[in-house]
Amino acid sequence: MSRIHPAEKKCQGPTREVVYPSVFTVWKKSSMTFQGTDGFTVFNGGGRLAFRVDNYSRKYRCLVLMDGAGKALLTLRPQILSMQYQWNGFNGDYGRTKSPRIPVFSMRRRSMLLRGNDEAEIFMGGPTNQAVTPDFRIDGSFRRRRCKIRGSTGEVVAEITRKKVNTTILLSEDVFSLNIHPGLDCELIMAFIVVMDRICLKPFAPVLCS
């Protein structure tokens, strides 16, 4: 386990405060131990459980991003009959209320015409804002754990890379690093990663959210 989430080393240096990116280790595995579950277990730089997604089956399309203690942060739901495999994110546990809500964000695959294209775009505030420039976009190869999340002006705000044990040994693609630049909402970025895992693994197939 020490290779999955190594403890952060303490650095000695000047007393001047330096702001570093938030570094997480993402494990494509549910925190539930029994076989057949699907999800994510995410550790912070100190090796503590920061986020998790527990799902009994990949067939269950609605996902809930939780903090390490199990509190629901964001509910992620696929958009019915979306032509670009679109997902919406809602605050808290959306399944516990029947009242309509405005999404925190709407995320979709950029193009259905380019096979193997992992690019996605995110609109804050939901589908009504999709006539303008996206607030975030993701480019690169999520499948190969080499992609970047960019802001509306193109600046890199977060990056996914393969997890290294040392300078020469890489862990499997089920374990990867997520670096989030200062000032970004970490739970929001993690929600983007969870949706990317859904829209990049299979072709478009509209489904109902059970």
Report on the structure:
With about 210 residues, the chain is mainly beta. The chain has a single domain, classed as Porin, CATH 2.40.160. The protein is about 5% helix and about 35% strand. The protein has one helix at about 185-200; strands at about 20-25, 40-45, 50-55, 65, 70-80, 85-90, 105-110, 120-125, 135-140, 145-150, 155-160, 175-180. A twelve-stranded antiparallel beta barrel has the order 1-2-3-4-5-6-7-8-9-10-11-12. The model is unreliable at about 200-210 (pLDDT under 50).
What distinguishing features does this structure have?
LOR_sf; 210 residues; Protein LURP-one-related 5-like; Porin; 12 strands; 1 helix; mainly beta; 34% strand; Tubby-like_C; 7% helix
Itemize the secondary structure elements and their pairings.
Blueprint: E1 22-27, E2 38-43, E3 49-55, E4 63-67, E5 72-78, E6 87-91, E7 105-109, E8 120-124, E9 136-141, E10 146-151, E11 156-162, E12 175-180, H1 186-199
Summarize the model shown.
This protein is mostly beta strands and 210 residues long. 7% of the residues lie in helices and 34% in strands. The longest helix is centred in the C-terminal third of the chain and has 14 residues, at 186-199.
Kindly provide the radius of gyration, computed on alpha-carbon positions and rounded to a whole number of angstroms: 17 Å
Distance between the termini: 35 Å
CATH topology (fold) name: Porin
Order of strands in the sheet with most strands: 1-2-3-4-5-6-7-8-9-10-11-12
- Helicity range: under 10%
Largest sheet: 12 strands, antiparallel, barrel
The number of distinct helices, counting runs of at least 4 residues, comes to 1
Listing every helix as H and every strand as E from the N terminus to the C terminus, the arrangement reads EEEEEEEEEEEEH
CATH class: Mainly Beta
| Proportion in β-strands | 25-35%
At CATH level 2, the architecture is Beta Barrel
